[in-house]
Amino acid sequence: MSGSAPTIESADVVVVGGGTAGLQAALQLAKTGRSVVVLERRAEGRSGARWCNGTSAWQFERAGLEPPKPPELRAHGGAAHMVSPTGRYRFTIVDSPVGDADMRLLVDRLRRDAEIAGVDIRWGVTDVELRRAHGRPTSIRATRGTEAVAISARLFVDAAGYQGVLRNQVPALAATCPDVAAEDLCSAQQLILAIDDEAGARHFLDEHGAVPGDAVIAVGVEGGYSTVNITVEASLDEVSVLTGTIPALGNATGPDLLKATRAAHPWMGRTIFGGGGSIPLRRVYDRFTAPGVALVGDAACQVFPGHGSGIGFGLLAGKVLAEATADADDPGSEAVLWRYQAAYLREFGATLAGYDAIRRMSTQLGPEGVEELFASGVFSAPLVRPGLAQEVGLLGARDTIAAIRALAARPAIARVVVPALAAMGTARAVYRAYPSTPSDRAFAAWRRTAERLLPRQDAG
């Protein structure tokens, strides 16, 4: 930026990113009495995801938000029919806990609520740069059209997505938050399509023992970690199609897989709306705060790796951040932001880390191993339903005994599956021990334990 120095405004908090995680953080912080400015690079009405995303009601409730209702809430309450890579094996989860939320409407709701709470949202802002004094960020400089923007604040929140905007400008975070490796990026696309041939849609449902409103979810179809999720909506007017893969492992992209799905189902018609992008699947960062800076959402890799949804856990981050800073004179102090980090990881870290282990397991198994897991009965409704709800669940005694017997008869997949399932239990103990206060020594010791007991995280 050139020219004369801009007039420096002031706020308590500056949030970079106006998607769901950023708007939620701004809203919750404003509710505690903070003055908050949001800087978003896109135009008004274009921020955040523009497709539908699977969420669970408990996440909204914990985040201090009303769960979505129609029309924001689309498909919900139907069954989920899980299908093996070849289609030979399947099982059904009755009353699926997942609700598809229209992200466009959710973003609009959060924007309206944030503005009512006094949040100043500025659209079309680029070239965001932190300015520091004594190692801590004190102001932010940016460009809005032809105007220079300068705002001083005590706390800066990076909600700008998995690549971050502020993260790499802070040495302490750059050292502990490596760029997401290509092997940990899911290529996803979700479209709402018109149904051109109702008879064709009904034939598809009949083939899978499904009814309108159910989801038919094929897994492992393009690499072990991949999905094609087709939900014919109850009205029989529209169908939701979601695809996800990891291209860096030699697989097709999510958009390519969706294109192939449409070609295989000519009853699917024109695109009504939707979109896609890259989703970080690696375990949540071990540290996502530094004096003056906090990360939320994809910027902190607060994404559910089991099926790649980052919406719910990003919303939770904004609420936990507001709770941790509510009574602080300095919301950006190291001790205050560590409270946010520790509270979040102690409450949700084990879930994110446990399902990271499951995600890596499915990648290692590949389609053939996933097929065998279906055949064994281990991959079953009791095991999968908590994952759809983005919660950690435990098998009952009878299901556990059956799983042990099935795996004992299949040592090849047992060598992959057993360590992953064990990691889910181990993660609980690891994250319960996360240091509650800032201490380089305690944090280093905790990281050594996590690296020893949980799957290794690759650097980007």
The helix content is 25-40%
Mean of the pLDDT scores?
94
The CATH topology name of the largest domain reads FAD/NAD(P)-binding domain
Please report the first level of CATH classification, the CATH class of the largest domain: Alpha Beta
Give the overall shape: globular
Q: Profile the largest sheet.
A: 7 strands, mixed
Strand content: 15-25%
What does this entry look like structurally?
This protein has 460 residues and is α/β, with parallel strands linked by helices. It has 3 domains: 9-52 and 105-179 and 284-349 and 435-449, FAD/NAD(P)-binding domain (3-Layer(bba) Sandwich); 183-280, Alpha-Beta Plaits (2-Layer Sandwich), CATH 3.30.70; 356-430, no CATH class. It is built from 12 helices and 20 strands. It has helices at 20-31, 57-62, 103-116, 171-176, 198-207, 254-264, 311-325, 334-376, 381-388, 397-408, 411-432, 440-453, and strands at residues 9-10, 13-16, 36-40, 52-55, 73-76, 80-83, 90-93, 99-102, 120-123, 125-133, 136-144, 147-152, 155-158, 185-195, 215-219, 227-232, 238-245, 268-280, 289-290, 293-295. The strands form 4 sheets. A 7-stranded mixed β-sheet has the order 7-6-15-16-17-14-18, with helices on both faces. Strand 19 and strand 20 form a beta hairpin. Helix 8 (334-376) runs antiparallel to helix 11. It is globular and about 65 Å long.
